[in-house]
Amino acid sequence: MAWRAGRGLTIAFAVLSALMAVLPVTIAWCTKLVLDEIAGGRPGAGVTAALGAALAGCGVLTALGPQIVQYVRDESGRRIGLVAQDSLFRATERFVGLARFEDPAFLDRIRMAQQYGGATPGMVVSAALGAARTVMTGAGFLVSLVTISPWMAALVVGAAVPSLAAELWLSRRRAAMLWGIGPVERREFFFGELLVNVQAAKELRLFGIGAHLRRLMAAQRRAANAERSRTDRRELGVQALTGTTAALATGGGLLWVLLSAANGTGGVGDVALFLAAVAGVQAAASGLVVELVTAHQQVLLFGHYLAVLDAEPDLPVPARPRRAGPLRRGIELKDVWFRYSPGHPWALRGVSLTIPYGGAVALAGRNGAGKSTVVKLLCRMYDPERGSVLWDGIDLREMDPAELRARIGAVFQDYMEYDMTAAENIGLGDLAALDDRGRVEAAARRAGVHGVVSGLPRGYDTMLSRIFAGPAADGPVEDGPAADGPAEDGPVVDGGGDVGVHLSGGQWQRLALARAYLRGERDLLILDEPSSGLDAEAEHEIHQGLREHRRGRTSLLISHRLGAVRDADHIVVLDGGRVVEQGTHTGLLACGGIYAHMFALQAEGYRQREDRNADAPRDRLSGAR
Ligand SMILES: Nc1ncnc2c1ncn2[C@@H]1O[C@H](COP(=O)(O)OP(=O)(O)OP(=O)(O)O)[C@@H](O)[C@H]1O
User: Fold this and answer.
1) What is the CA radius of gyration of the chain?
2) ipTM entry
C-alpha cells in the first residue's frame, strides 16, 4: 500500500530513517576521537577541526532531521490512508446485498477497519522503518560496546529481550480488548447520537427520556473504561517489572564502567563512548520495543481491515452472468421461501406471483405481511432460501446484479434523504443526468416538487441538510422564495440561507419520487408506499401522475391506501408471508376476504369522517347553546 501510495516518498522515508539511524553512533565516535585527541596531549589541529566540523554537521542534521522525517512520515501516512480508505469502501461495494450490513459482528469489523484501516498502514510503515532505524542505531552502539566490553553488551541486550516479549504479549491483549469492547462502544455511540439527533429530540423531550438515555450511555462508557483500565493496569505492572530489570542491568553496567575508569583501565574517550553506547543501546532497545509493539498492535487491528477486504461476497455473483436484456415476458416469483437469517421466522412462505410485462401489479396486506421483502428480493438484495425469482425466465442469481438494478426504477418505503443539494438529491437517481439540469428539473416537475425547489434560496443548488451548511463562499444569498415557488408551503430556511434547509416529510418524499422519475424508462418500476407522507390533495395528484407513468409499463405498487391500488391490473394480497388472495379490485371485493375487509374499514373511516364533518356545525351550535 505504501508503495502504491507513493514510491518516491517511501524511498525518501527509508533513506532518511537510515540517515537518522547512523547519526547518534557517528556523533558518539566523533566525540570519542576528539576526546582521545585532546586527552592524548598532542592534538592535531587539522584532525580536531575535521572532527569538530563533522560534529557540527551531525548537530545540524540532528536538529533538522526529526522535523523532515516527521513531515515525510505524515505525508506518506496521508497518502497511504487515502489508498487504504478507498480499498476498504471499494471492498464494501462487493457486498451487493444487504445481509452484511445487518450483521452486527460484521458492522463492528467495518467500524474497526474504518477506525484503524486508514491510519494503520502508514503507522506500520512508520513503525517498521522506525524499528529498522533503532536496530541500526542499536547495532552501531552495540558494536561500539562490544569493543569495550562484550559482557556488558550481552547484559544490555539480555535485559531488553524479556521486555520485548512482554510488550508483544501485552499488545495482543490490548487488540483483543479493543475488539471485545466494540459492541459496548457501538451502543455508547448510538446513545450519544440519539441525544443530539434532531429527529429524536421531540420524543426525548416529550417523554423526558434524555436523562435515562444519558445514564445508559454512561453505563456503556463505564463498562468500556473498566476494560481499558484493566488493560492499562496490567500493562503498568508488566512494564514496571521489565523496566526495573533493564534499569538494574544498566545501572550495574555504569557502575562497572566508572570503577574501571577510576582504576585507569580505560581512556576518557572510551568512558564517553561507553556511556553513549549504553544509553544508545538501551534507548534503541526501548525504541525498538515501542516501534514493534505499535506495528504489532496495528497489524492485529489491521486484521479487521483485511477481514473486510477478504470477506466472501454476501451473494454469489456468477463469473459469467447471463444477459437478461430488456423485460419482454415478465417477472415471476416461484414458490419463494425467505427469512432474514436462520434465526428469524419466515418472512415469505412459498410466495408465487407474476408481474407480467406491461402490467401494473399491486401488493396489499397488513403490516409485516412481507410486501417490502418481496421488493427487496426483486432487486436481489437477498436471495430466496427456496424457490426462485425469474426475469423473463432467467433466475436473478444468474444475472449480474448491476445489470438487473439498472433495469429497475424504485421508490422505497424507507427512501433516503441525502444531505446534499436538491439537484444532487434528484440527480443521484441517474448519475448520467446528475449535471443535466434540464432532466433534473423535468423529473422534479413530474414529482410536483419543482416549485418548492426553485423557491429555495439557491434553487436546485441549495444544500438540503441539517448537518452541513450551504456553500458560504459562493456569495450572498437572496432570502425568500424566488421564481414560481409557493411561499406558503415552501420549506423552512434558517437564517440567511447558508444554514440548513428543512424540508417537510412530504417534500422529501416528492424528491425521492423525482429521483425515481429521473431514471426514466426502466423495465420495472417499483413504488413502495410512494405517497404515504403526502397530503390528500398531493397524494391524489401524485397517484394521477403515477397512473399515467405506469400506463403500459411493468410496475409494482405497494400501498396501504387501497384507493391507490384499486386501478392495478392485478392485486396480490399477502398475509403472514403467504399469498392469500389475488385478482382485480372488483373481484377481490366480491370474494369478501381480507382485501374486502380492509377496503370496507378504510371506506368506513372516510364515511365516518364525512359524517363528523357534516355534524360539526350542529355540534358547534349546540356547544354555543
Ligand atoms: N431486515 C430485517 N431483518 C429481520 N427481519 C425483518 C427485516 N425486515 C423485515 N423483517 C421482518 O420480515 C417480515 C416482513 O416484513 P416486511 O417489511 O416485508 O413487511 P411489510 O408487509 O412491508 O410491512 P409494512 O406494511 O409494515 O411495511 C416482518 O415480520 C419483519 O419483522
Assistant:
1) 36
2) 0.98
